[in-house]
Amino acid sequence: MSITKMKLVSVSASESNYEEMLKRCETSTYLHAENATSIVNEENGGRLLSIENIYSDYVNTLKNIGHSIGFEMKSKPTIEKTYTNEEIEEFLKNVEEQFKVVSDSVESNTLTSDDEIALEALRVLDFAAMHDCHYISFGMGRLPHDSVKKLNLIQDAKFITAKLHSTSQYQWIVYVTSKSHVRETKKMFDGLYLEEIKIPTIDSKKIIAQYEAELIDVYTYCEERYKLYALHQYVAIMNDQYVVTGFVPAKDLGKFEDEFKGLDVSVDAKDPSEAPNLTPPTLLKNNWFFRPFEMFVTMYSLPAYADMDPTVFVGITYCFLFGIMFGDLGQGFLLLIGGLFLEKKLHNKLAGIVGRVGITSMLFGFLFGSVFGNEEILIPVHQGLFNVREKLINVMDGDFTMTLLISAVVIGAVLILTTMVMNMCMHIKHKKWGELLFSQNGVAGFVFYGFILVAIAGKFVFGFDLLKPMWLIPFVGIPVVLFFLKEPLTHLMEGKSIKPHGGWGNFCLETFFEVFEILLSFVTNSMSYLRVGGFVLSHAGMMMVVMTLVEMTGNAGIVVFIIGNLFVMALEGLIVGIQTLRLEYYEMFSRYFEGGGKKFTLISSNN
User: Fold this and answer.
1) How far apart are CA 516 and CA 500, in angstroms?
2) Which residues contact 480 (CB under 8 A, 6 or more apart)?
3) Domain assignment present for 52
4) Residue 389 located in a structural domain
5) Are 466 and 474 in contact (CB under 8 A)?
6) Cα–Cα distance between 62 and 64 in angstroms, integer?
7) Which one in 1, 58, 114, 383 has a CA-CA gap of 20 to 30 Å to 445?
8) SS3 for 147?
């Protein structure tokens, strides 16, 4: 419903406990921290906390070691042991030397998961001991099952075999033979299509296991120190105090202060207006119904902190326009149930929007008398409720088509005027008097466009004529002149020179085409809403085709009915959703919304 009010906070600590203060800031669920470079200046005499983050190299080295030996580095929840830089560097040196052998062994063998299973079964014999044998030789590999059968038929074999692993196609074996029969044995296995796997000279898992505990301890310590040093970008040193500055939601200030209980730090809070050099972040605050529509707003641009949150307006207008264009009671009910279900299960905002537009689809579907494309089922209900001959609104009635299209343009005109009012309110708030008075979305534009609408309505509906000089000059001529002179008049109000930068000749030529474009845009923007009426007819027409096919297919009609409704829901729903979003962005947002806000981001999300 609005943008969350912020408090500017400064958390200060001495040199002896600033690291603990930083840790509390990192785990805070309320703090948006500002980079220290935006805090420090010549006036406050502050300086940056500049310490080289050597732990970045340590963490990368440990990750590279783990990657080279196939060991995944995972830090513990808490640090159990601390290390000096010298101890870490000595440990890394020893580990790199020892694991180079392991890495070479791993890289020389590209093994599948089945190869690994077979190797694991062979591990009980000790790889090093197998290679140290003087009189016997070992070999390992996989044989096709057909070759295994032939292996059992060999007479006077000079080897013995053992099964290690088996799949539907292969069997992994290890064979043992004497040194004197190695060549003969290998030649025989080659004939049986043995795919040999090299037996490692060392047991890498055994070596890794020796270092695993300390590897994890060192990695945990280095990663924690790396994260802590990464937070130094938010620390400014002022008067020997280490200060972190940022923004906290005003309603959560007390909870934020409680996060530092038991620690010798001070938390100072003030209004953001006291630090004009810092731009407060934007945190949108909307209720359950409108919260999913924040997605559409942020896709366009996040509103600035000092602006208004358009989410509620977007939610209302999007549901309204979608409901008109996709009016069907039955299909709207499916959108409602399906959207809310997926939103709850997947926490998906788009699904939430689908559920909400289902409500207005049901409402207009009821007014149109349409249930899954059936245009007659609600006739008795309409007759009883609205005292009409058939239906309250018969979309497919040819006499209603022009009324529908005119109504769509009227809806568009009302929305355009509404966005103009919203734009004027924002200019009043920011005291942009030139934009307020002279722009096409300000007072001049509102008077011009509003008069044109009233004049058309008076001419064709109420029978009075306003298209006379006495009315046209003040309500059309003067606004057009204000459009033309907007720049010099704005400069005049601001106390600046009214002479255009490029001279009056260039100004008049450029402004002439700009004003022409403004006048043309009023027409095109209004006509753009014809698509609302067009899609009402399109949806009804597609469902009429479906119902005709149902009647033609006889007993298979129920299948055609289900498939047809699902097809129309998918295709028409997607198209209507996109077209409604287009109206939001191009016909409404462009008139009142500037964006450019800075997202509220917890300090932990940046680290």
Assistant:
1) 19
2) 448, 515, 519
3) no
4) yes
5) no
6) 5
7) 1
8) helix
pLDDT of residue 107: 45
Its domain, for residue 346, covers: 282-400+529-602
Last-in-domain residue among 174, 199, 224: 199
Residue 535 CB partners (closer than 8 Å, separation 6+):
325, 326, 572, 575, 576, 579
Q: What pLDDT does residue 109 have? A: 56
CATH code, domain carrying 154: 3.30.70.2750
Is 355 a domain residue? Answer: yes
Most confidently modeled range among 139-143, 349-353, 589-593: 349-353
The packing angle between helices 85-107 and 204-230, to 10°, is 140
Token readout for 535 is: 């899609």
Residue 561 belongs to some domain of the structure: yes
From residue 208, alpha-carbon distances to 87, 88, 95, 115, 363 in Å are: 19, 18, 10, 19, 67
Whole-number Å distance between alpha carbons of 39 and 48: 9
Radius of gyration (C-alpha) of the chain in whole angstroms: 38
Alpha carbons 515 and 481: distance in angstroms, whole number: 9
- Mean pLDDT is lowest, of 51-65, 125-139, 268-282, for 125-139
Residue type for 211, please? Answer: Y
Please state, in angstroms and rounded to a whole number, the distance separating the CA atoms of residues 507 and 488.
10
- The band of 567, judged by pLDDT with boundaries at 50, 70 and 90, is very high
